Amino acid sequence: MKNKGIFYNYQYATSFVRSDKALLEERFTLTSFAFSPRSVKDYILAFLLQGFYLLKHWNQYQIIVSQIASYHTFLPSVLSKLGLKKHVILLHGTDCNVIEEIQYGNLRKWPLRWFTERSINMASLLLPVSAQLIHSKSKYLEEGKAKMGLSKSLPKLKTKYKVVYNGFNTSVFRITSSDRKPKSFLTAALSLDKRRNFLLKGIDLFLNLAKNHPDYHFTIVGSSTLYPFMEIPKNVQIIDKVDADELVNIYNRHQFYMQLSMSETFGLSLCESILCGCIPIVSDVGMNGEIVSNIGYILPTKDQEMLEALVQKAIMDSDNDNLEDQMRRADAIKSRYPLAARKQNLYDALEPLFHSNEN
Fold this sequence. Notes:
- The protein has two domains: 5-167 and 339-358, Rossmann fold; 181-336, Rossmann fold, CATH 3.40.50.
- It contains 13 helices and 13 strands.
- The protein has helices at residues 15-25, 42-56, 74-81, 112-122, 150-153, 195-200, 203-212, 244-253, 268-275, 288-291, 304-317, 323-336, 339-358, and strands at 5-10, 29-34, 63-67, 86-91, 98-99, 125-128, 146-147, 181-188, 217-221, 236-239, 254-259, 279-283, 297-299.
């Protein structure tokens, strides 16, 4: 098995990049490359370095697997177009969705759009984590404010794709306590000091909710500071990035988890929180609705008053919420999105490409 090689191509070593790398290393030999220029002038050097690595390790891999379509996926897709190597792109959201008002999306404007579009069109195979990345049905944002899914931005897309859901390590994220603070709300996001991320993750809705309910407790984890969009209410606690063990403890102290994003393909933190027993309240974007089906609450459109009503219903329904209910929600995620299923689906998608290279 290990004689099959993959050139693993990514920009930043995020948690999902590391997780997929570990899964792939169980069966294949990986040559990893991080395309991460620090400034605009460094991009030429990054392209040259990537080209050098692709050539240097040419005989050590048969296919290239990239995380998220962007600048770093262009050269691998050129190799795919020329028939020299197979190139697979794992799609995650920012490479498929466009929200103009917050300047979100790789397909929004030149030159990033040019590189992203050509990468996707010339790739051998696309592996989105949700079908919503190809054809989105979301009406959460007003008509005309967003292009959700590749079918909107690239209507002539012909590249083959196969949906491969995310999977979760249930030995790490689990229920450790049934003693939760009543009317406590948690959300998790990185880089909230930037305006785009602040609005993208729905922190404006979250803080407005906190402002309207000073007797409730709210927590934001993952960022040390927030973009100065509005005053932070006194009942909001902000916690910087923490390790997995502490994150599990934080999940287990809260009653509700809120994912109010304008775009959220497959909420990793959302699923982690449910595995830890939280009651989910989510925006109707990406996979959110499917993830919390029959176990949570869905906000159909971005509207503060609708959110208020939804939260009050969730609080009323939670009066009798107990450990059995928490276990039921966690079991739903375990059965729907096991890590073993993602691993096998990745293998099933990649193996035929090795065989086609042999012919």
